[in-house]
Design brief:
With 418 residues, the chain is an alpha/beta fold. The protein has 16 helices and 13 strands. The strands form two sheets. The protein has an eight-stranded mixed beta sheet with strand order 6-7-9-8-10-11-12-13, sandwiched between helices. A five-stranded mixed beta sheet has the order 3-2-1-4-5. Strand 12 (343-348), helix 14 (359-365) and strand 13 form a beta-alpha-beta unit. The longest helix has 32 residues, at 386-417. The termini are far apart.
Length: 418
Protein backbone atom coordinates (compact mmCIF):
# COMPACT_ATOMS: atom_id res chain seq x y z
CA UNK A 1 0.00 0.00 0.00
CA UNK A 2 1.40 3.42 -1.03
CA UNK A 3 2.57 5.47 1.92
CA UNK A 4 2.63 2.50 4.31
CA UNK A 5 5.77 2.48 6.51
CA UNK A 6 8.02 -0.59 6.36
CA UNK A 7 7.26 -3.40 8.79
CA UNK A 8 10.04 -2.49 11.23
CA UNK A 9 8.79 1.11 11.45
CA UNK A 10 5.17 0.00 11.87
CA UNK A 11 6.20 -2.34 14.67
CA UNK A 12 8.05 0.49 16.40
CA UNK A 13 5.03 2.80 16.13
CA UNK A 14 2.66 0.11 17.37
CA UNK A 15 4.95 -0.73 20.29
CA UNK A 16 5.06 2.94 21.28
CA UNK A 17 1.26 3.07 21.17
CA UNK A 18 0.88 0.04 23.43
CA UNK A 19 3.48 1.37 25.88
CA UNK A 20 1.49 4.59 26.22
CA UNK A 21 -1.78 2.82 27.12
CA UNK A 22 -1.34 2.89 30.94
CA UNK A 23 -0.78 6.68 30.88
CA UNK A 24 -3.79 7.23 28.64
CA UNK A 25 -6.11 4.95 30.62
CA UNK A 26 -9.35 6.63 31.71
CA UNK A 27 -10.22 4.02 34.33
CA UNK A 28 -13.09 1.60 34.84
CA UNK A 29 -15.89 0.93 37.29
CA UNK A 30 -15.13 -0.78 40.58
CA UNK A 31 -14.72 -4.52 40.13
CA UNK A 32 -14.01 -4.35 36.38
CA UNK A 33 -11.33 -6.81 35.30
CA UNK A 34 -10.92 -7.76 31.65
CA UNK A 35 -8.05 -9.21 29.67
CA UNK A 36 -7.63 -8.39 25.99
CA UNK A 37 -5.43 -10.08 23.42
CA UNK A 38 -4.66 -7.80 20.47
CA UNK A 39 -3.37 -9.72 17.46
CA UNK A 40 -1.88 -7.78 14.55
CA UNK A 41 -1.73 -10.45 11.90
CA UNK A 42 0.42 -8.60 9.37
CA UNK A 43 3.13 -8.10 12.00
CA UNK A 44 2.70 -11.52 13.56
CA UNK A 45 2.65 -10.16 17.11
CA UNK A 46 0.21 -10.27 20.01
CA UNK A 47 -0.15 -7.87 22.93
CA UNK A 48 -1.98 -8.57 26.17
CA UNK A 49 -3.78 -5.70 27.89
CA UNK A 50 -5.41 -6.18 31.28
CA UNK A 51 -7.77 -3.40 32.37
CA UNK A 52 -9.05 -3.12 35.93
CA UNK A 53 -10.43 -0.42 38.17
CA UNK A 54 -6.84 0.12 39.37
CA UNK A 55 -5.20 0.67 36.00
CA UNK A 56 -4.09 -0.89 32.73
CA UNK A 57 -1.15 -3.28 32.29
CA UNK A 58 0.43 -4.16 28.96
CA UNK A 59 2.82 -6.91 27.98
CA UNK A 60 4.15 -8.16 24.66
CA UNK A 61 2.98 -11.68 23.95
CA UNK A 62 0.26 -13.53 25.82
CA UNK A 63 0.24 -15.23 29.20
CA UNK A 64 -1.72 -18.33 30.07
CA UNK A 65 -4.48 -16.10 31.39
CA UNK A 66 -7.55 -16.76 29.22
CA UNK A 67 -8.61 -13.54 27.45
CA UNK A 68 -12.11 -12.16 27.82
CA UNK A 69 -11.86 -10.92 24.26
CA UNK A 70 -9.47 -11.35 21.33
CA UNK A 71 -9.25 -8.52 18.79
CA UNK A 72 -7.67 -9.34 15.44
CA UNK A 73 -6.70 -6.63 12.96
CA UNK A 74 -3.70 -5.20 11.09
CA UNK A 75 -1.16 -2.56 12.06
CA UNK A 76 -2.53 0.12 9.73
CA UNK A 77 -6.03 -0.20 11.17
CA UNK A 78 -4.70 -0.29 14.73
CA UNK A 79 -2.67 2.87 14.17
CA UNK A 80 -5.74 4.52 12.64
CA UNK A 81 -7.70 3.65 15.79
CA UNK A 82 -4.86 5.03 17.90
CA UNK A 83 -4.93 8.36 16.01
CA UNK A 84 -8.72 8.57 16.06
CA UNK A 85 -9.00 8.34 12.26
CA UNK A 86 -11.80 5.81 12.71
CA UNK A 87 -13.68 4.21 15.57
CA UNK A 88 -13.76 0.56 16.52
CA UNK A 89 -17.32 0.35 15.24
CA UNK A 90 -16.20 1.83 11.89
CA UNK A 91 -13.46 -0.80 11.71
CA UNK A 92 -15.84 -3.59 12.76
CA UNK A 93 -18.41 -2.42 10.21
CA UNK A 94 -15.82 -2.43 7.42
CA UNK A 95 -14.59 -5.90 8.50
CA UNK A 96 -11.15 -4.50 9.31
CA UNK A 97 -11.41 -5.81 12.86
CA UNK A 98 -12.35 -9.27 14.04
CA UNK A 99 -13.61 -10.13 17.50
CA UNK A 100 -13.85 -13.30 19.52
CA UNK A 101 -15.33 -13.24 23.01
CA UNK A 102 -17.25 -10.45 24.74
CA UNK A 103 -18.33 -8.02 22.00
CA UNK A 104 -19.11 -5.22 24.47
CA UNK A 105 -15.60 -5.38 25.88
CA UNK A 106 -14.12 -5.31 22.38
CA UNK A 107 -16.07 -2.27 21.19
CA UNK A 108 -15.63 -0.48 24.51
CA UNK A 109 -11.85 -0.99 24.59
CA UNK A 110 -10.95 2.19 22.70
CA UNK A 111 -13.29 4.22 24.89
CA UNK A 112 -11.09 3.53 27.90
CA UNK A 113 -8.10 5.46 26.52
CA UNK A 114 -7.40 9.06 25.57
CA UNK A 115 -6.36 9.80 22.01
CA UNK A 116 -3.13 11.67 21.20
CA UNK A 117 -3.03 15.19 22.55
CA UNK A 118 -5.37 14.30 25.39
CA UNK A 119 -8.39 14.15 23.07
CA UNK A 120 -11.38 12.11 24.28
CA UNK A 121 -12.08 8.78 22.55
CA UNK A 122 -14.43 8.70 19.58
CA UNK A 123 -16.88 6.54 21.51
CA UNK A 124 -17.43 5.28 24.99
CA UNK A 125 -19.60 2.69 26.70
CA UNK A 126 -20.92 3.82 30.05
CA UNK A 127 -23.53 2.80 32.59
CA UNK A 128 -26.42 5.21 33.14
CA UNK A 129 -28.30 4.79 36.46
CA UNK A 130 -32.08 5.10 36.16
CA UNK A 131 -33.69 4.43 39.52
CA UNK A 132 -32.88 0.83 40.39
CA UNK A 133 -31.81 0.11 36.84
CA UNK A 134 -28.43 0.38 35.15
CA UNK A 135 -28.55 1.04 31.41
CA UNK A 136 -25.37 0.21 29.49
CA UNK A 137 -25.02 2.82 26.76
CA UNK A 138 -22.82 3.40 23.73
CA UNK A 139 -22.37 7.09 22.85
CA UNK A 140 -20.49 8.39 19.80
CA UNK A 141 -20.45 11.36 17.44
CA UNK A 142 -21.65 14.93 17.87
CA UNK A 143 -24.65 16.97 16.81
CA UNK A 144 -28.39 16.57 17.43
CA UNK A 145 -29.24 13.53 19.54
CA UNK A 146 -30.36 10.24 18.01
CA UNK A 147 -31.36 7.19 20.08
CA UNK A 148 -31.13 3.65 18.67
CA UNK A 149 -33.25 0.88 20.21
CA UNK A 150 -32.64 -2.79 19.43
CA UNK A 151 -35.10 -5.64 19.06
CA UNK A 152 -36.11 -8.69 21.09
CA UNK A 153 -33.28 -11.04 21.99
CA UNK A 154 -30.77 -8.64 20.50
CA UNK A 155 -28.42 -5.93 21.78
CA UNK A 156 -27.19 -2.59 20.50
CA UNK A 157 -24.76 -4.58 18.32
CA UNK A 158 -27.59 -5.05 15.79
CA UNK A 159 -27.46 -1.29 15.20
CA UNK A 160 -23.68 -0.80 15.00
CA UNK A 161 -23.69 0.01 11.28
CA UNK A 162 -26.46 2.56 11.79
CA UNK A 163 -24.58 4.06 14.74
CA UNK A 164 -21.36 4.34 12.73
CA UNK A 165 -23.06 6.08 9.81
CA UNK A 166 -25.29 8.44 11.78
CA UNK A 167 -22.44 9.42 14.13
CA UNK A 168 -20.92 11.47 11.31
CA UNK A 169 -23.86 13.87 11.64
CA UNK A 170 -25.45 13.20 15.05
CA UNK A 171 -24.61 12.37 18.65
CA UNK A 172 -25.75 8.76 18.71
CA UNK A 173 -26.78 6.86 21.84
CA UNK A 174 -27.31 3.10 21.60
CA UNK A 175 -28.45 1.58 24.91
CA UNK A 176 -28.99 -2.04 25.74
CA UNK A 177 -32.61 -2.07 26.87
CA UNK A 178 -33.14 -3.24 30.47
CA UNK A 179 -33.15 -7.03 30.57
CA UNK A 180 -30.85 -7.31 27.55
CA UNK A 181 -27.18 -7.09 26.70
CA UNK A 182 -25.04 -5.53 29.41
CA UNK A 183 -27.87 -3.62 31.14
CA UNK A 184 -29.38 -4.73 34.45
CA UNK A 185 -31.95 -7.51 34.29
CA UNK A 186 -34.67 -7.11 36.93
CA UNK A 187 -36.27 -10.51 37.43
CA UNK A 188 -39.75 -9.01 37.86
CA UNK A 189 -39.64 -6.14 35.38
CA UNK A 190 -42.76 -5.21 33.43
CA UNK A 191 -41.10 -5.80 30.03
CA UNK A 192 -43.89 -4.17 28.03
CA UNK A 193 -43.71 -1.08 25.83
CA UNK A 194 -44.94 1.31 28.53
CA UNK A 195 -42.42 -0.01 31.06
CA UNK A 196 -39.51 0.27 28.62
CA UNK A 197 -40.59 3.78 27.56
CA UNK A 198 -40.77 5.04 31.14
CA UNK A 199 -37.25 3.80 31.85
CA UNK A 200 -35.91 5.28 28.61
CA UNK A 201 -37.43 8.67 29.43
CA UNK A 202 -35.61 8.56 32.77
CA UNK A 203 -32.47 7.54 30.89
CA UNK A 204 -32.83 10.57 28.60
CA UNK A 205 -33.18 12.79 31.68
CA UNK A 206 -29.99 11.34 33.19
CA UNK A 207 -28.07 12.02 29.98
CA UNK A 208 -29.51 15.52 29.61
CA UNK A 209 -31.20 14.67 26.29
CA UNK A 210 -34.03 17.15 25.87
CA UNK A 211 -35.27 15.87 22.53
CA UNK A 212 -34.03 13.21 20.15
CA UNK A 213 -34.89 11.39 16.98
CA UNK A 214 -35.47 7.72 17.82
CA UNK A 215 -34.72 4.69 15.65
CA UNK A 216 -36.10 1.33 16.71
CA UNK A 217 -35.97 -2.12 15.17
CA UNK A 218 -38.68 -4.72 15.93
CA UNK A 219 -39.43 -4.51 19.67
CA UNK A 220 -37.28 -1.37 19.79
CA UNK A 221 -39.61 0.13 17.19
CA UNK A 222 -42.59 -0.56 19.44
CA UNK A 223 -40.78 1.12 22.35
CA UNK A 224 -39.95 4.08 20.10
CA UNK A 225 -43.64 4.46 19.22
CA UNK A 226 -44.50 4.37 22.91
CA UNK A 227 -41.98 7.14 23.58
CA UNK A 228 -43.71 9.23 20.92
CA UNK A 229 -47.10 8.55 22.51
CA UNK A 230 -46.06 9.18 26.11
CA UNK A 231 -43.77 12.17 25.54
CA UNK A 232 -44.25 13.62 22.04
CA UNK A 233 -42.43 16.80 23.09
CA UNK A 234 -39.25 14.73 23.62
CA UNK A 235 -39.26 13.01 20.21
CA UNK A 236 -38.21 14.90 17.08
CA UNK A 237 -38.88 12.06 14.65
CA UNK A 238 -39.29 8.28 14.58
CA UNK A 239 -37.44 5.86 12.30
CA UNK A 240 -39.24 2.53 12.70
CA UNK A 241 -37.51 -0.51 11.22
CA UNK A 242 -39.95 -3.42 10.97
CA UNK A 243 -41.55 -2.35 14.27
CA UNK A 244 -43.39 -4.94 16.36
CA UNK A 245 -46.86 -3.52 15.88
CA UNK A 246 -49.84 -5.39 17.34
CA UNK A 247 -50.86 -8.66 15.72
CA UNK A 248 -54.40 -8.62 14.32
CA UNK A 249 -54.70 -12.39 13.87
CA UNK A 250 -53.79 -14.00 17.17
CA UNK A 251 -54.68 -17.66 16.86
CA UNK A 252 -52.11 -18.68 19.49
CA UNK A 253 -53.38 -16.14 22.01
CA UNK A 254 -54.78 -18.69 24.53
CA UNK A 255 -51.59 -20.77 24.40
CA UNK A 256 -49.27 -17.78 24.76
CA UNK A 257 -51.21 -16.58 27.80
CA UNK A 258 -50.41 -19.88 29.51
CA UNK A 259 -46.67 -19.60 28.84
CA UNK A 260 -45.43 -17.86 31.97
CA UNK A 261 -42.12 -15.96 31.79
CA UNK A 262 -41.33 -17.22 35.30
CA UNK A 263 -40.21 -20.43 33.58
CA UNK A 264 -37.20 -18.39 32.47
CA UNK A 265 -35.94 -18.37 36.05
CA UNK A 266 -35.41 -22.13 35.79
CA UNK A 267 -32.02 -23.21 34.39
CA UNK A 268 -32.22 -23.98 30.69
CA UNK A 269 -30.70 -22.93 27.40
CA UNK A 270 -30.93 -23.28 23.64
CA UNK A 271 -28.71 -25.46 21.51
CA UNK A 272 -26.31 -23.44 19.39
CA UNK A 273 -27.73 -24.89 16.18
CA UNK A 274 -31.24 -23.78 17.21
CA UNK A 275 -30.15 -20.22 17.91
CA UNK A 276 -28.15 -20.06 14.67
CA UNK A 277 -31.10 -21.37 12.64
CA UNK A 278 -33.56 -18.90 14.12
CA UNK A 279 -31.08 -16.05 13.62
CA UNK A 280 -30.51 -16.90 9.95
CA UNK A 281 -34.25 -17.14 9.32
CA UNK A 282 -34.81 -13.43 9.96
CA UNK A 283 -32.74 -12.62 6.84
CA UNK A 284 -33.87 -12.90 3.24
CA UNK A 285 -30.32 -12.99 1.85
CA UNK A 286 -28.25 -14.84 4.43
CA UNK A 287 -25.07 -14.26 2.42
CA UNK A 288 -25.04 -10.54 3.35
CA UNK A 289 -23.97 -11.47 6.86
CA UNK A 290 -20.31 -12.21 7.46
CA UNK A 291 -20.26 -15.77 8.93
CA UNK A 292 -17.78 -14.68 11.61
CA UNK A 293 -20.10 -11.86 12.67
CA UNK A 294 -23.07 -14.22 12.67
CA UNK A 295 -21.19 -16.68 14.89
CA UNK A 296 -20.27 -13.84 17.25
CA UNK A 297 -23.88 -12.69 17.57
CA UNK A 298 -25.14 -16.24 18.16
CA UNK A 299 -22.51 -16.76 20.85
CA UNK A 300 -23.41 -13.40 22.45
CA UNK A 301 -27.07 -14.42 22.67
CA UNK A 302 -26.22 -17.75 24.30
CA UNK A 303 -23.79 -16.11 26.72
CA UNK A 304 -26.34 -13.50 27.83
CA UNK A 305 -29.25 -15.98 27.92
CA UNK A 306 -27.31 -17.97 30.50
CA UNK A 307 -28.54 -15.41 33.08
CA UNK A 308 -31.94 -16.11 34.71
CA UNK A 309 -32.79 -12.41 34.47
CA UNK A 310 -32.09 -12.42 30.74
CA UNK A 311 -34.25 -15.50 30.20
CA UNK A 312 -37.13 -13.91 32.12
CA UNK A 313 -36.76 -10.65 30.16
CA UNK A 314 -36.76 -12.47 26.82
CA UNK A 315 -39.82 -14.59 27.54
CA UNK A 316 -41.79 -11.79 29.22
CA UNK A 317 -41.05 -9.34 26.37
CA UNK A 318 -42.02 -11.87 23.69
CA UNK A 319 -45.24 -12.70 25.51
CA UNK A 320 -46.20 -9.03 25.93
CA UNK A 321 -45.52 -8.26 22.27
CA UNK A 322 -47.82 -11.04 21.11
CA UNK A 323 -50.59 -10.38 23.63
CA UNK A 324 -50.94 -6.63 23.03
CA UNK A 325 -54.53 -5.89 22.02
CA UNK A 326 -54.76 -4.41 18.52
CA UNK A 327 -58.14 -2.70 18.87
CA UNK A 328 -60.65 -1.61 21.48
CA UNK A 329 -60.14 0.68 24.42
CA UNK A 330 -56.42 1.11 24.96
CA UNK A 331 -55.69 -1.00 21.87
CA UNK A 332 -52.52 -0.36 19.90
CA UNK A 333 -53.98 0.97 16.64
CA UNK A 334 -56.42 3.49 18.16
CA UNK A 335 -53.50 4.76 20.26
CA UNK A 336 -51.27 4.86 17.18
CA UNK A 337 -53.73 7.31 15.61
CA UNK A 338 -52.72 9.78 18.34
CA UNK A 339 -49.00 9.68 17.49
CA UNK A 340 -47.73 13.24 16.99
CA UNK A 341 -44.01 13.06 15.99
CA UNK A 342 -43.34 12.48 12.29
CA UNK A 343 -42.81 8.78 11.65
CA UNK A 344 -41.12 6.73 8.94
CA UNK A 345 -41.99 3.02 8.77
CA UNK A 346 -39.49 0.80 6.92
CA UNK A 347 -40.61 -2.74 6.09
CA UNK A 348 -38.90 -5.70 4.41
CA UNK A 349 -40.67 -7.57 1.62
CA UNK A 350 -39.56 -10.92 3.05
CA UNK A 351 -39.84 -10.24 6.77
CA UNK A 352 -41.03 -13.51 8.37
CA UNK A 353 -41.89 -11.87 11.70
CA UNK A 354 -43.55 -8.54 10.86
CA UNK A 355 -44.66 -8.74 7.21
CA UNK A 356 -45.13 -5.50 5.26
CA UNK A 357 -48.88 -6.23 5.14
CA UNK A 358 -49.02 -4.60 8.57
CA UNK A 359 -48.48 -1.36 6.70
CA UNK A 360 -52.13 -1.26 5.66
CA UNK A 361 -53.21 -1.04 9.30
CA UNK A 362 -50.69 1.73 9.89
CA UNK A 363 -52.00 3.53 6.81
CA UNK A 364 -55.57 3.27 8.09
CA UNK A 365 -54.82 4.63 11.57
CA UNK A 366 -51.86 6.93 10.84
CA UNK A 367 -52.25 8.05 7.22
CA UNK A 368 -49.67 10.85 7.46
CA UNK A 369 -46.83 8.47 8.31
CA UNK A 370 -44.29 7.74 5.59
CA UNK A 371 -43.88 4.08 4.65
CA UNK A 372 -41.14 2.46 2.57
CA UNK A 373 -40.77 -1.22 1.71
CA UNK A 374 -37.29 -2.52 0.89
CA UNK A 375 -37.20 -5.27 -1.70
CA UNK A 376 -35.56 -8.62 -0.92
CA UNK A 377 -35.12 -7.74 2.74
CA UNK A 378 -35.98 -9.54 5.97
CA UNK A 379 -36.55 -8.37 9.54
CA UNK A 380 -33.37 -6.33 10.12
CA UNK A 381 -33.03 -3.82 7.26
CA UNK A 382 -30.25 -1.98 9.12
CA UNK A 383 -28.12 -5.12 8.68
CA UNK A 384 -29.42 -6.53 5.41
CA UNK A 385 -29.75 -3.21 3.53
CA UNK A 386 -27.67 -0.78 5.62
CA UNK A 387 -26.88 1.80 2.94
CA UNK A 388 -30.49 2.18 1.81
CA UNK A 389 -31.79 2.16 5.38
CA UNK A 390 -29.30 4.79 6.55
CA UNK A 391 -30.05 7.02 3.54
CA UNK A 392 -33.76 6.83 4.28
CA UNK A 393 -33.24 7.66 7.96
CA UNK A 394 -30.94 10.62 7.38
CA UNK A 395 -33.15 12.06 4.65
CA UNK A 396 -36.23 11.70 6.83
CA UNK A 397 -34.57 13.23 9.91
CA UNK A 398 -33.27 16.15 7.84
CA UNK A 399 -36.74 16.76 6.41
CA UNK A 400 -38.33 16.58 9.86
CA UNK A 401 -35.79 19.08 11.23
CA UNK A 402 -36.46 21.48 8.33
CA UNK A 403 -40.21 21.24 8.91
CA UNK A 404 -39.77 21.93 12.62
CA UNK A 405 -37.54 24.92 11.86
CA UNK A 406 -40.09 26.29 9.39
CA UNK A 407 -42.91 25.80 11.91
CA UNK A 408 -40.90 27.58 14.62
CA UNK A 409 -40.25 30.50 12.28
CA UNK A 410 -43.93 30.74 11.45
CA UNK A 411 -44.85 30.80 15.15
CA UNK A 412 -42.30 33.55 15.82
CA UNK A 413 -43.64 35.55 12.87
CA UNK A 414 -47.22 35.18 14.17
CA UNK A 415 -46.09 36.29 17.62
CA UNK A 416 -44.38 39.38 16.21
CA UNK A 417 -47.43 40.25 14.13
CA UNK A 418 -49.68 39.94 17.18
Amino acid sequence: MAGTPPESKRLEIVNDGFRSLPDRYLGADKGFDATYHIKLCDLGHTWEVRCTSHGARVRKGATRRAPDVTITTDATTWMGLRRGDLSGIDAFQRRLLGVRGNLDYAIGFEGMFRLPGGRPPLLHIHDVPVGRHRISTLTMGSGPDVVLLHGLGSTRASLFETAAELSHHYRVHAPDLPGFGSSSKPSLGGYNARWFAQIMLGWMDELGIGTASVVGNSMGGRVAIELGLQAPQRVDALGLLCPAVAWVRRGLHPIVRLLRPEFGLLPHGFRRSTVASQFRNIFYDRDVLDPAVGDLIVDEFRRIYHSPGARYAFLASARNIYLEAPFGRGGFYPRLAQLEPPALFIWGTHDPLVPPAFGRHVRQWLPDAEQVTIERCGHVPQVEAPEQTNRLLMSFFAGAASSQTAAARALRADARAA
